[in-house]
Amino acid sequence: MFENNRLCKALGIKYPIFQGGMAWIGTAELASAVSNAGGLGIIGAGHMPPDLLRNEIKKAKAWTDNPFGVNIMLMSPFVKEVMQVVIEERIPVITTGAGNPAEYIPALKEIGSRVIPVVASVALAKRLVRTGVDAVIAEGMESGGHIGEITTMSLAPQIVDAVDVPVIVAGGIADARGMVAALALGADGVQMGTRFVLSEECIAHENYKKAVLKARDRSTVVTGLTTGHPVRVLSNKLTRKFEDMERHGASTEELDKLGVGKLNLATHGGDVENGSVMIGQISGMLSEIKPVKVIIDDIVAQIPATLKRVQDLC
Ligand code: TUI
Fold it and tell me: What is the DSSP string of 155-183?
């Protein structure tokens, strides 16, 4: 399977399955496991200082011989230094999130890295393709963390029609049904975040994983719609406080301040009530923690039956 997939060929991977580059939990442990299982593991640089990122890259290089990527969160205060690290370490695939990476593209292309930004709109996808990106990740608002405004179902085909580079679809995908649906929408591959949180290799605190296991379809909310930084998180004490402050006319600064340090508090501190549990809407479907290899093998194994079901209906 996937022998003729242009994304797999271009990146040297077996399956067109990316692991979302999640801040704090997209570590070398998870990224190397995904790459070893035939997908593309991605270290999430998040707000990491450059030294820490370099350390994660060194670990991942030791733990896998397969290609892996780094996701650069463009709102990070360390973005320039982190770009320098990935260039020095000659990381073959750079994904970006939460902004427009245009100014960094020439330097990354110069060392031969594939640049694959996450986009949440057709306009940004078209603009970035003109600057020479190799593919785009179309991320629907079902995803956890920082999101756009359009659902995967509506965004994916519009981006596929608008650009001539491979499209990876993200947001609401966690099994073969989701993957086949994304491919039907015109995707060349998929990216999953929440599914990989519930893996044995993910280093998230056990309370964080338990919270994801307990989540139902309507357990997440989007905060920050008024500040221009919408973030999908599990509904909890923190989001209720945020909503309360928002209702009482708190300023963007006050609201942004409330979020500082809260992701780490949840992912590592295990405080899933006062911390920020960034997970996607598909968490409601997930009920099992599995090794990364089993997650990927199960999805790939289910693809023929999923396709057959579709065909039998037509
Ligand atoms: O980046 C993400 N998801 C993230 S980043 C993150 S770290 C964080 N921590 C605390 C508070 C806020 C963030 C957590 N989750 N996904 C990729 C993504 N990028 N989704 C949406 C976008 C996006 C949105 C608008 C990309 C570009 C864009 O347009 C920018 C522009 O200038 O046009």
Answer: HHHHHHHH-SS-EEEESS--SHHHHHHHH
